[in-house]
Specification:
- The chain is 37% helix and 15% strand.
- It has a six-stranded parallel β-sheet, sandwiched between helices.
- The radius of gyration is 16 Å and the shape is globular.
- The chain binds flavin mononucleotide (FMN).
- The site of flavin mononucleotide has 16 residues, from helix 2 and helix 4.
Length: 206
C-alpha cells in the first residue's frame, strides 16, 4: 500500500487518560508498519499509572518492550523530563505526532503553549513547524474548559481525534476495538492499514 505522503518518522506520546489498550495497539501498529522508519515514544507519569491500572504493566524502563511484547526494532523511548531530547527541537525532522490517549491536562497545556515537559514541547514544535499533530482526547463528560482547549488546539493546527471507538465493525473485544480505532488514526495521517474495517453500506456479520 505505497503512499508518497506516508509519514516515515512518527512521535507517539501517551498520557494519563484512560485507554492504555489504544496506546499499546498504536505502538504495535507503528512498529509493524514497513513505511514507518522510526518511532519516538514518550509516556507521561500519568500514562505509567494508567498502564499499571489497566494493563498490569509497571515501570518506566523498557516500557516500549513491555507494550510490544518484544524488543523494539524502530522505537526509541524518551523520558518525559528530558526536554533536551531530539524531538524537542524543530531541527529534528518528524512527519507526524500522535498523542494517544491525550488527557485533559496535556490538552490544556498544549492548547495554551505551556511546554513544560517533552510531550508538550514536541507537540508545540509540531504546531510551530506546521507538522501533523493528532490529539486523541479522552474524557467524559467534557466541561467548557475542555471544549475551549480543544478549539484552541484545533485552531493552532492540531487534529482533535477523540477516543471514540466504532461499533459497526462489531468488535469482539477491546483489542479489536482499539485496532480499528488505530486504523482510523493511521489512515488520517497517511498510513492506511490493509486490515482496517471499511464500511460497505451494512454492518459486518460475525
Ligand atoms: C486510571 C486513571 C484514569 C484516568 N483517566 C483520565 C481520562 O480519561 N481523562 C483525563 O483527562 N484524565 C484522566 N485521568 C487523570 C490524569 O491522569 C491526570 O489528570 C494527570 O495529571 C494527567 O497528567 P498527564 O497529562 O501529564 O499524563 C486518569 C487517571 C487515572 C489514574
Amino acid at each position: 500500500m505505497p503512499s508518497a505522503d506516508a509519514p516515515k518518522k512518527v512521535i507517539l506520546a501517551t498520557t494519563g487518560a484512560s485507554g492504555g489498550v489504544f496506546a499499546r495497539a498504536m505502538l504495535r501498529a507503528l512498529e509493524k508498519d514497513s513505511r514507518v522508519q522510526s518511532v519516538d515514544f514518550v509516556a507521561s507519569d500519568g500514562a505509567l499509572r494508567v498502564f499499571a491500572e489497566e494493563l498490569d504493566i509497571t515501570g518506566r524502563n523498557g516500557l516500549a518492550a513491555q507494550l510490544l511484547g518484544a524488543k523494539p526494532k524502530k522505537t526509541t523511548q524518551h523520558s518525559n523530563e528530558n526536554i533536551g531530547a531530539s524531538i524537542a527541537s524543530g531541527s529534528y525532522q518528524v512527519d507526524a505526532m500522535i498523542v494517544l490517549p491525550c488527557s485533559m491536562g496535556t490538552l490544556a497545556r498544549i492548547a495554551n503553549g505551556m511546554a513544560i515537559n517533552l510531550i508538550e514541547r514536541a507537540a508545540d514544535v509540531c504546531l510551530k513547524e506546521e507538522r501533523r499533530l493528532v490529539l486523541c482526547t479522552r474524557e467524559a463528560p467534557l466541561n467548557k474548559i475542555h471544549i475551549r482547549n480543544m478549539q484552541y488546539a484545533a485552531e493552532a493546527g492540531a487534529t482533535i481525534f477523540p477516543v471514540v471507538p466504532a461499533f459497526y465493525n462489531r468488535p469482539v473485544d477491546s483489542d479489536e476495538m482499539a485496532r480499528q480505532f488505530v486504523c482510523r488514526v493511521l489512515a488520517h495521517i497517511g498510513l492506511p492499514q490493509e486490515d482496517a474495517y471499511v464500511w460497505s453500506g451494512r454492518s459486518k456479520k460475525k
